[in-house]
Design goal:
Helices cover about 35% and strands about 30% of the residues. It has about 190 residues and is α/β, with parallel strands linked by helices.
C-alpha cells in the first residue's frame, strides 16, 4: 500500500500514540475549540453523528457529554488509537460505536448521518484523498445534513473551494483560534436538502 493511501499515526509515529492526549491538551485550546465545534453542529435529540478521524475519541466523547441523546460513531484508520478510544468511552460509560476505516472510503450507507464532525484530520490527507473524503462525507450525510470541521487555517481557500466542488452549500469559516502550530479554523458546510 502506498504511503498516501495510509493513515498518519497520532503525532506521526506509532510509538508516540500514547502521548497524544496530553500533548494536544498542553499545546492547543482543545476543549475550547471542540466545544465550539459541537455547539455549532446544533445537535438536537436523536441526531446521528459521525466523528471522522476520531483518534482517541476526545471529540466523540464531548459530543456524547454535551448531547447524551445523540447516536454517535467514531471512525479512524489507526487500530491502536481506536483501542485507546474504546477504553476511554468504556471508562466514561458512553455508548459509542467505533469503526476502523479510512475517511475517503467510508463503510456506511448513503444518508447514514445527520452531522459529520472532524477535528485535525483533513490536513493529513493528500489533495486527492481530501477530495475523495469530502465526496464520501457528502454521500453519507442525509439531505440537509451538515459537515463541521476544525483544522489549520492555512488551507482556507482550497478547502472552501473543495467543499463547494463536492456539492456542499452554505460553506463558511466561522471561527479562528491561535495555537502553537498556527491558526486553527472552524468551518461548516451543508448538504442541500
Amino acid at each position: 500500500m502506498e504511503r498516501d493511501e495510509r493513515y498518519v499515526p497520532a503525532l506521526s509515529f506509532d510509538w508516540l500514540t500514547p502521548l497524544y492526549d496530553p500533548c494536544v491538551r498542553w499545546l492547543m485550546p482543545e476543549r475550547k475549540f471542540k466545544s465550539h465545534l459541537v455547539r455549532r453542529a446544533s445537535l438536537s435529540e436523536g441526531r446521528r453523528v459521525l466523528d471522522l478521524g476520531c483518534g482517541t475519541a476526545t471529540l466523540t466523547l464531548l459530543v456524547k457529554e454535551m448531547h447524551p441523546e445523540a447516536r454517535v460513531r467514531g471512525l479512524d484508520g489507526d487500530p491502536k488509537i481506536l483501542e485507546i478510544a474504546r477504553r476511554k468511552a468504556e471508562r466514561a460509560g458512553a455508548e459509542i460505536g467505533f469503526d476502523e476505516g479510512m475517511a475517503y472510503l467510508l463503510p456506511y450507507p448513503a444518508g447514514s448521518f445527520d452531522r459529520v464532525l472532524s477535528s485535525m484530520v483533513l490536513h493529513h490527507l493528500t489533495e486527492e484523498n481530501k477530495r475523495r473524503t469530502l465526496a464520501e462525507v457528502f454521500r453519507v450525510l442525509a439531505p440537509g445534513g451538515e459537515f463541521h470541521v476544525a483544522d489549520f487555517a492555512r488551507q482556507n481557500k482550497r478547502l472552501t473551494g473543495q467543499l463547494r466542488e463536492a456539492g456542499f452549500e452554505r460553506v463558511a469559516e466561522h471561527a479562528r483560534y491561535r495555537t502553537l502550530f498556527g491558526r486553527l479554523s472552524l468551518w461548516e458546510a451543508r448538504r442541500p436538502a
